[in-house]
């Protein structure tokens, strides 16, 4: 996982921002699909 995404994730979890956590999870899923296939 890229470091910028990890930072965003940690902040979202710290702030208990469920919307942002969901959004970041989707970003990570699409990112992984593109780069690992």
TrEMBL record:
UniProt superkingdom: Bacteria
Pfam families, sorted: spore_CmpA
InterPro entries: CmpA
Name of this protein: Cortex morphogenetic protein CmpA
């Amino acid at each position: 996982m890229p470091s910028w995404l990890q930072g965003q994730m940690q902040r979202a979890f710290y702030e208990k921002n469920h919307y942002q956590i969901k959004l970041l999870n989707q970003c990570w899923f699409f990112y992984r699909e593109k780069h690992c296939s």
